[in-house]
Amino acid sequence: ETGVTQSPTHLIKTRGQQVTLRCSSQSGHNTVSWYQQALGQGPQFIFQYYREEENGRGNFPPRFSGLQFPNYSSELNVNALELDDSALYLCASSFPPGTGGAAGELFFGEGSRLTVL
Amino acid sequence: DQQVKQNSPSLSVQEGRISILNCDYTNSMFDYFLWYKKYPAEGPTFLISISSIKDKNEDGRFTVFLNKSAKHLSLHIVPSQPGDSAVYFCAASENSGYALNFGKGTSLLVTP
Fold this sequence. Notes:
Number of strands of chain A: 11
Structural class of chain B: mainly beta
Number of helices of chain A: 0
Oligomer: heterodimer
Shape of chain B: globular
Order of helices and strands of chain A: EEEEEEEEEEE
Mean pLDDT of chain B: 94
Largest sheet of chain A: 7 strands, mixed
């Protein structure tokens, strides 16, 4: 069984640039969520994708956008990067709520650490 | 605003003793609560959960207690082992499996 994989693991960007982070879901999972974890904080929900559509979003501006592909892999795009976007970005896959596994059980990747200078 | 709070950034416990990690929440609409464990350079991993209709859930050495009136939950680890040393995150959701709200985490160190 393949776990959640994310790429790249580390990257450095400058303010104003754009970044794309990638995630491959765990085998059998068709729901993907993205979280932002700033230093010293817990993960914060960005959005969730199910069947290639966004079906929930946290308190993040529109410059944070995503995609889910037919193979359930996903991308997180951030435009016009700001210094405060520096964080660990975590992707998590899961079964749709109520369809399998423990409710709320997310399977996280190791994350992509983004530094904005 | 932080709806899930873990007020102890760190905890040190001797091997074999009980570890108690605490978590408070402010949103009365939360109906599902979870604990995740995170080792350095790894993503968080699910540990144990509890529904708001229960007040206790046990899984081996791990027990989660929920006090809805106090909006408080706790994770008990008995007996604690050095391999339990990690950061523990408390999380809650309004509808199971969707948009988890995490606390800032408590770093547990279990010493031999």
